[in-house]
Design brief:
about 100 residues; Ribosomal_eL30-like_sf; 5 helices; alpha+beta; four-stranded mixed beta sheet; Ribosomal_eL8/eL30/eS12/Gad45; about 15% strand; single chain; 60s Ribosomal Protein L30, Chain: A; ribonucleoprotein
C-alpha cells in the first residue's frame, strides 16, 4: 500500500497537482484550491492544530499519515511535512489508499 501512495504522490507532483510546505498549503486552503491535506505524523503539535483548524474552516479533508522523511522522499524533496492535493481525482484515490493502509 505504501508504494501505491508514494506513486500517486509522485504522479500528482509531476502533473502539478501537489503543493508542498506549510505556508503554501495555508494559502491554497484560503483560496479553496486544496482537495486533500496530508500532514506528516511527526510535525509539531502546534502546526497540526493550526492546519486542522484551517482545514475544518475551509471544509477540506485531511489525514495525518507517515513521517516527514518518507513523504518528502516520495515527492522528491527533503524536510517537508505538509502536502496538499489540488485535483479531486488524485485526492479521492490517495484518500482511499491511506484509509485502506490504516485499516490493515
Amino acid at each position: 500500500m505504501r508504494k501505491k501512495i508514494d506513486s500517486y504522490l509522485g504522479f500528482a507532483k509531476r502533473s502539478r497537482n501537489l503543493i508542498m510546505g506549510y505556508n503554501t498549503c495555508l494559502l491554497a486552503m484560503n483560496k479553496k484550491k486544496l482537495k486533500l491535506l496530508i500532514i506528516a505524523g511527526d510535525v509539531s503539535e502546534n502546526t497540526v492544530k493550526k492546519l486542522i483548524h484551517s482545514a475544518n474552516e475551509s471544509n477540506i479533508v485531511y489525514r495525518i499519515y507517515s513521517t516527514c522523511d518518507e513523504l518528502s522522499q516520495a515527492c522528491g524533496t527533503t524536510g517537508r511535512g505538509v502536502f496538499g492535493i489540488t485535483d479531486q481525482n488524485f485526492a479521492n484515490v490517495i484518500l482511499k489508499e491511506i484509509d485502506e493502509d490504516r485499516s490493515i
